[in-house]
Amino acid sequence: MNRIRRRVLQAVGALALAAGLLPAALAQPAPYPNRPVRFVIPFPPGGNLDFVARTLQPKLSEFLGQQVIVENKGGAGGIVGAEYASKQPNDGYTLFLGNTGTIGLYVSVYAKLPYDPVKDFDAVGMITGNAVLTVVHPDVPARTMQELIGYAKANPGKVNAGVAGSGSLLHFATELLKSHAGIDLVVVPYKGSGPLAIDLLGGQVHMAIDAPSVFMTQVKAGKLRALAVTGNTRLSALPDVPTFDEAGLKGFEASGWQGMFVPAGTPRPIIERVSDALLKTLAVPEVRERLVSQGLDVVPSTPAQFTAHVRAEIEKWNRVAKAANLKVE
């Protein structure tokens, strides 16, 4: 009887122990990610960042194991989307595609930016870098940068230059061109590259400086004329278009970059998980080829490398903005 009693007591004890452990096991969080992930793009569809995001989306979904949903939040040159993303929960279910303007430049030109690019975001990884391309409508009588400069000098205040976002890198590049070449352009701000491209094709504005991916198809179709590109080398996709140095504007440089961020305070294991998926996505040949085909350089990085890059960019653009006295109210 004593032996039977001992076995019963042991069984009861084991059941009690299992019952005690059950709530703790149930309380363990499910592995990340266990539901769809939003990828916030701070510009309307049709622009450079939208192209980058939608190129990454299928493989990024595959490597994360959950659907990645692109969410366009355009307005104020990317500020609306950046502020929105910065205020989302830091649980890894909101990714943000930032760029030179929203993260690197705006803090130097806006007196009251509604987010802090360093304090409100954690860097996940750089994605692409890009030169910027100067294009004109075919009605503009200029086939080279020097001819455009001559035309603008002969018609001061009559050449309209569209820019995707007031105070953006593209706005800054246009202002830099004005001072560098000594010409008077009328700057016309747009909410994004998509609406700008429509008006440029329609002749409502005469010229624009933007990412090559925005205008590549129209340039190759002869609907727009490309005059010069930033960077040290010509674009492989547009080998006949000279660099600004080759076009006679020595020292003109306003290239940009795009990268992934999450709201500040996102747990490091989640950041590493997203970083791993991003690096795997950028290593896929068809993804790289699609990005390169639109004049983008694929430049993957670790979170630490990208954090250092962002801080260096903020310092650089702050110096440039002060020198050019560029401020946006």
What would you note in describing this structure?
It is built from 11 helices and 11 strands. It is an alpha/beta fold and 329 residues long. Strands 2-1-3-10-4-11 form a 6-stranded mixed β-sheet, sandwiched between helices. Strands 7-6-8-5-9 form a 5-stranded mixed β-sheet, with helices on both faces. The radius of gyration is 25 Å and the shape is globular.
Could you list some keywords that capture this structure?
329 residues, alpha/beta, six-stranded mixed β-sheet, five-stranded mixed β-sheet, 11 helices, 45% helix, 19% strand, globular
Compressed to H and E, one letter per element, the order equals HEHEHEHEEHEHEHEHEEHHEH
Placed side by side, the strands forming the largest sheet appear as: 2-1-3-10-4-11
Query: What is the radius of gyration computed over CA atoms, rounded to a whole number of angstroms?
Result: 25 Å
Average pLDDT confidence is 90
Number of strands: 11
- Weakly predicted, low-confidence segments: none
Let me know the largest β-sheet.
6 strands, mixed
What is the SS-derived class? alpha/beta
Determine the N-to-C terminus distance. Answer: 89 Å
Provide a count of the helices.
11
Hey, roughly how much beta strand do the residues contain? Answer: 15-25%
Q: In which range does the helix fraction lie?
A: 40-55%
Q: What characteristic shape results from the CA principal axes?
A: globular
